[in-house]
Amino acid sequence: MLLSIISSSAISSSAISMVTSPGLPQYGAAVVAGLIILLSLKEVLSASEHWNRSLASSFNLAIMPMLFAFAAIVFFKIGAVI
Predict the structure, then answer these.
(1) How far apart are CA 76 and CA 72, in angstroms?
(2) pLDDT in tens for each of the 82 residues of the chain?
(3) What global pTM score does this model have?
């Protein structure tokens, strides 16, 4: 009885995972919008008198993970097309 419950739940979970897509592209628009906003703010603030090394590293700390997420989204979309 226990073995049949485990095997049936494993089969149903594998069927569900084959249908659902990874969670990264769901937030693709938010990542792209956030990346554009952060890059724009970095460009504008770099020309101001308030720009310093710690502000630059703070922006880089926020921008780098978004760039990796953006690259993952692009690779996922290309993989979906091919």
Answers:
(1) 6
(2) 544 544 555 555 554 555 555 555 567 788 888 899 999 999 999 998 888 999 889 999 999 988 998 888 889 888 888 8
(3) 0.61
The reply to whether 12 falls in a domain is no
What radius of gyration do the chain's Cα atoms show?
Answer: 21
Residue 34 within any structural domain of the chain: yes
Domain that holds residue 37: 22-81
- Asked, for residue 2, whether it belongs to a domain, the answer is no
- Per the domain annotation, does 5 fall within a domain? no
Three-state secondary structure call for residue 48: coil
Q: Taking each helix axis as running N to C, give the angle between helix 28-46 and helix 53-81, from 0 to 180 degrees, rounded to the nearest 10.
A: 150
Closest to 28 in 3D by CA, of 80, 72, 61: 72
Determine contact, residues 25/76, Cβ cutoff 8 Å.
yes
Closest-CA residue to 38 (of 62, 70, 72, 69): 62
